[in-house]
Amino acid sequence: MATVNHNLSHYDKNTIPNAKDFRFGIVVSEWNDTITNGLLKGAIDALLDCGALEENIITWDVPGSFELIYGSKKMIQQNVDAVIAIGCVIQGETKHFDFVCEGVTQGIKDLNVTTDTPVIFCVLTDNTMQQSIDRSGGKHGNKGSEAGIAAIKMAELRRK
Ligand SMILES: Nc1c(NC[C@H](O)[C@H](O)[C@H](O)CO)[nH]c(=O)[nH]c1=O
Ligand SMILES: CC(=O)[C@@H](O)COP(=O)(O)O
Asked: Where does (2S)-2-hydroxy-3-oxobutyl phosphate bind (predicted)?
């Protein structure tokens, strides 16, 4: 289902574990910070709405989405139950978009494979700024909310 047919901020609290006992790490790219800050708000709001404690949420900034890989690796060492990697990559004039998107995707995938801490992929890979606006609290909801809910569910799974 494409995002246009699915509001990213919708969730049913009855289907989500209480997050009060979980610790979360959030790593946020500074590139396109008006967007990433909106994603961060969505993630934190969802975590708190589902019972997470503010003191159990650690937030770090990194320069760009490519640095989410190393930042998430270091965040895992903070003994958190899940990490949320937040970025916004927008197509420019060159192929750099392709390499950043592929690199961060593969890097976060590798962390999920090689460590025992789930790293949630909250990286917008958009053609235009408007698409990013629409997905960070705009008409399609907030991918940060989606990521926060995913982090809770994966933190619960990790304890099985
Ligand atoms: N163009 C975007 C970037 N580029 C920067 C890279 O992520 C990285 O910081 C740089 O290559 C140094 O290693 N980053 C984004 O997050 N979004 C962009 O649109
Ligand atoms: C994703 C990027 O790195 C890109 O926005 C940079 O823009 P450009 O391809 O015009 O250098």
From this structure: 93-94, 135
